[in-house]
Every structure is written in structure tokens, then in C-alpha cells.
Amino acid sequence: GMVEDREIQEGSIVVPGDRLRDVSMMSANGVVQIGTGLMQSGDEVVAVQPGVIHWMTKVPGVGTRAWIDCNQKRYTPCLDDMVLGIVTDKHADDYKIDIRGSCGAILSALAFEGATKRSRPRLNIGATVYCRVCLAIKDCEPELTCICLTSKKGWMTGQAIFGELEGGHMFDVGIGYARSLLSPNCAIINLLGKHIAYEVAAGANGRVWVKSASVKDTILLVNAIKNAEHLQPQQVAEMVTQLIQFNSSD
Amino acid sequence: GQGRMSKLEYVDLSGLRIDGRRAHELRNINAKLGVLTQPDGSAIFEIGITKVLCAVYGPRECTLRSKELHDRMLVQVEVSTLPFASGEHKKRSRGDRQIGELTTMLKESAEALLLTSVHPRSQIDIVIEVMQSDGSLKAACLNAITLALIDAGLPMRDFMVACTAGCIDGRVIVDTNYIEDSARGPELVVAYLPNQDKVVTCQLEPKLSLETLGPVMEAALQGCKELYKMLHAMVLEHSCQLATNRGTFAT
After folding, report:
1. Which residues of chain B have a CB within 8 Å of the CB of A3?
2. Mapping DSSP to helix (H, G, I), strand (E, B) and coil, where does residue B100 land?
3. What secondary structure does DSSP assign to A21-35, as a single string?
4. Can you give the pLDDT of all 251 residues of chain B as single tens digits?
5. What is the dihedral of CA A159, A160, A162, A163, to 10 degrees?
6. Residue A79 contacts B, CB cutoff 8 Å
7. Strand A105-112 to strand A94-98: parallel, antiparallel, or no bridges (unpaired)?
8. What SS3 state is found at A227?
9. Residue contact B195–A1, C-beta within 8 A
10. DSSP one-letter string for A96-159
11. Which of A6, A7, A45, A49 to mutate to test the interface with B (most CBs of B within 10 A)?
């Protein structure tokens, strides 16, 4: 090998071209399911993206699965992900939505809870929508839907989880970070919620939308969430306290 | 009387070149990833005082549906040279033939490097800006492209590295600078995949004898291997830094 064969372990950083020569390290019987960021070359597994390599044994039905955690700016659509999109085009039966991926996604005009041909939401170009990915195959355009599996609130009530997001402000963050914002225990979201009343929607495609009563509060929320991406938990708490103090002292 | 033209000694008796290097020595290199925030990937590659900036946009939807390829990604390359990049201040027009040739070579190399079937019907735009030009420009552009594509996280089959080798006064030299490039000797640019031990691109001009080709090629490949060791370590360190900041990696 060119670079002295360093030992690649679970959780190591890899760079495109790095090879895992000994597959038996990952899986006792030498059978590994290859996920994103990896490719097979002969008997070896080669990294094709930069990032952290992970493998998990005893995955039901599969055995060992290996993949690379890569932080890209572009989103790769994945089934059942919740994403924030922007309407770029309107057709008779569907909308073309930009989800920050390699391809625009399609949202059917009737894919809203309680929508019929007579009564359905009319989205304008440039509107922000919160939806779920219902089809993600690399050879097809990804498809989205605003039909929620858990809540049955119709689109007209304004309480549906998915659908158009009016007002507020949307901004971009890292894809890995956005996913962590979706967790119910997310520190920054809960901390901010103790001081400010606001609505937030996070998309797995690296977009976040916030809405609050005043412009000043919205600016604070945007800055706090953006900054928290690179801070440790204690630093996050300190930052929020400082921002709130500064905000209320005006 | 007749004037006597003093001949420039590219490699002197003690084996030192004009800038004090030995025949097989590379200049100092520097690689910076993620230098721009707007593009999906970016990098600056420096070797000696040759400095190239590369920005990558994509994969995104094809701007022209007619150009869309059903089973793979479309790669577009654009090269521009800043007017103050080389010794004399001159503005290069878009249709410059040299730039056109360079663009084609870079596009073909990028297509061979990338796993284009992962994102069918999409497009990536690679934009190169030559900031400072002091020899071995083609190789520098290729290296900048590799680094920018890594920064963008695009799937690629290996870590492409490129190096230039030449032959002046019978001496084989590696990583030519501007003065050596202008010596009208042969110049061989090689783009190499170190882990697969394969050559992606190979360009030679003007010409050299068949016996000289072997040593010059060997020298270029050796230069590529040394470059790979350095760039690999730099990119690894950069990735570690990023992952640690994000809290996804414990050192």
C-alpha cells in the first residue's frame, strides 16, 4: 500500500481510496452489507467518501452492516425522512420541490390530509413546505407527501404537522446537525423553549424553520441554533443564557 | 565580433536546480479544504507559489434538460486565470485554446475519478480559478479538483494525485517551475490513483524519445506517490478536526 497500512477500526476517520483489507475484522463469517460511502473492490472494502466509518454486527436479517458517516452539504433522499422544501414549479397535478438534493422532488397536489379535488391547498412558487419522503430510489425523482401517518388533522385546520409553513424564517444548517435537532431530547431546542415561545420545524435535508412573536426573538433563535452546531453541551447552555440576558436588557 | 549567448543551466554540476532543489524534489505543498461557504465543496492547492482554487457545485439538477444523462452524473468544468496570476498582467479570453484543452483534460479526469452512476440525471460544476501560476499548472488543477471533490463528499473511486516531470539537458526533473516549463523541453503530466495503482490521465508535450519516456514516467509516478502521502495526511487531519468539532468523533 502507498500509505503505511494503518489499522482502520470502527469509528476511524477514512478518506476516499482507503481500503479495509481484512473484512473478518467486521464480520466473523466475512459477509458484510455495504452501505453508503463504501464500495467493494475484489475482496476488500474501499471507502469512496470521507468521513467516519461505522459497522454494526447482529443487524436482524442482514448480519453485519457497514457505512460511512459523511457530512455533505447536499442531501441524499432517504425513505421516511422529514424534509423542508421550497416550491419551484407548479403543474396541474403536482408541485416540483427543491429539497437541496441532486434532484428536485415531486409533491402530488392531493397528498395532503383531507384533500379532495375540490378542496386542496394552493401553494405558490416560493412557498415553504414540510413533508415526508415517500419514495427515494436513485433512478427516479424523489417523491414527497404531506400525509401524516400518526395525526389525522386535516390540512384546513392549520394544525396538521405537514404542509405549508407560513411566516417565520428558514435557514440552512449541516445535515448531521439537522438530524440531531429532530430528537425529542434536543438540548438547544428545549433550552430555548424555556425562555421564548416559538414554533420550529427541522428537516433531515439540513433546513430549519422557526417562527416566533417578534423579529428580535426570531433573530435570537436563528443565531442560537446556528451557533450550537459546533459547541459542547455546557457551552450551549452558557450561550443561551448570555443571549437571553442580552436580548432582555434592551 | 560575435556575442556569446550565456546558456541557462537548469541543473548545475552539483545537481541543484535553479531554485535550489534536487532533480526529484517536490516544492512545498499546502492544501486547505472548505475555504468557501457558498459552494458544496471547495479547496485551495498550493505547490511552490503555484496556487489554484477549486469550487464544486452539486450534485444538483441539470440546468439544461437536453444535456441530462439518464444513467450518470454530468460533469462540467470551467477554468479561469486571474490576470495577475503569471509574470505579466494579461487578460485571457474565454475562448483561449490552452484553457479549452485544459478544461477537456480536467473534465475527463474528473469523470474517471468520480463514481458517476451514484447520482444519475444530475450535474456537477467544477470551477477552477488559477490564482498564481508558476509551473506545473495542470497537475495543480487536478490536485485542487480532488481536494474540492473530497470536501463536497462526492463518491470517488480513489484519491487522485497529479505530478509533472520533464527532461532538460538530459536530466529528469520532477515538479517543474515556470522557468523550467518555458525551457521547451518535454513536459509529462500524470494523474494517478495510488491505491489502485492506475494512471487516470497522461499528457505529454511536445515530444521525447522512447528511451527517455520510461525514466520520466517513473519519476512522475514517484512524485505522485510522495504527494499522496502528504495530501492523505492533510485531508485526514482536516476531517478529524471537523468530526471533533461536531462531536461525532472521539480522539
Report:
1. 194, 228-229, 232-233
2. helix
3. --GGGT-TTS-EEE-
4. 444 455 678 888 888 898 899 999 999 999 999 999 899 999 999 999 999 999 999 899 998 989 999 999 999 999 998 888 877 777 766 667 888 999 999 999 999 999 999 999 999 999 999 999 998 999 999 999 999 999 999 999 999 999 999 998 888 999 999 888 888 889 999 999 999 999 999 999 888 889 999 999 999 999 999 999 999 999 999 988 887 776 655 54
5. -80
6. no
7. antiparallel
8. helix
9. yes
10. EEE-SBSS-EEEEEEEETT--SSS---PPTT-EEEEEEEE--TTS--EEEE--SS----GGGS-
11. A49
SS3 B166: strand
Q: Identify the residue whose cell numbers are 494523474.
A: B191
Identify the residue among B239, B240, B245 best suited for mutation to test binding to A, counting A beta carbons within 10 A and taking the highest: B239
Q: What percent of chain A lies above the pLDDT cut of 90?
A: 42
> With contact defined as beta carbons under 8 Å apart, do B141 and B79 qualify?
yes
Which 8-state DSSP code applies to residue B98?
H
Taking only the tens place, the pLDDT of each residue in A164-182 is 999 999 999 888 888 888 8
Q: Which three cell numbers stand for residue B174?
A: 520532477
Contacts of B236 in chain A (CB under 8 A): 13, 15
Contact call for residues A48 and A16 (beta carbons, < 8 A):
yes
Are the beta carbons of A71 and B242 separated by less than 8 Å?
A: yes
Residues from chain B contacting residue A232 (CB–CB below 8 Å): 247
Closest to A172 (Cα-Cα) out of A239, A213, A225: A225
Per-residue pLDDT at A1: 42
